[in-house]
Amino acid sequence: MAIYDFRAPVDGAFGTLSASATSGTTTLSSAAFAGLPSDLTTTKYLPLTLADDTAGLFETVWVTAHGSGASTVTVVRAREGTTARSWTSGAPWRCAPTIRDIVHTKTRATLPTDAHLGYRAALTDESVTVERTVAGWSTPIGGGTTGRRHGWAQTNASCPHGTTFQVVSGLTTMSLGGTIATFSASGLLLNRGGVWSITYNAWSDSIYAGETSIGMSWPAGSFLSGDDMFDQRTRSPNAAPQSGFAWQWLYFNGYVSDSRAAILLVPKVCQTNTNSSAVLYNITLTAEYLGG
Description:
With 292 residues, the chain is mostly beta strands.
């Protein structure tokens, strides 16, 4: 697991320091520390607040090590936006909820990089609640978000003949109101981890319709690279050229991690016959963000 992934507070823990501490001290002493857990690490930490109620000052520290029954703890100073200070012997400390333990307002750009698993925030710039997961920032199902439906289309798209899949780059935006996913000449970026529903459709009417194929892959690469997103579906699967039409569709419904969402998803078409004429396509690509 990553550093500071698990937050492990202790209900009702409090006491006073038995020795003074400078702003650089990383070992604190208190008789009341003896009751704290002994399984704390830089991955599983315990938040404490040091306070001077008279002066109105406080500092949040994270306990990352404590021996069983010991009166000392190892801490990381000045956490959660607080400032490291000097504390006198007798200064009170307590384990109590901080702003990290409630749903509070942020923008996506100001989300903390050291957030623990389960940390939640309401994003004022996206009107959505997000939660820190192992895969990154995700929106819980029902967490709400605007502009979740996206669509792109292209009519009469040329599909050169040959055995190599051609990247579809001429798709233009349909009026579905989406603001999360983006499409460029290189491919589709979902821009956010979570549950997505994605469809890719192509329709052709040609003597060579039975030899047309469509595909999408993650990461960007050749079709059938071993990491393709979809199975191929076709209305006219015959290997020999035939008159008629082909209606092909690919679809995906499932969870996409933040790291995968940042990789281009590339739509492609192919016509395996070597005849010089082209097959014309009507193509649509839709992506709907369903949440967490």
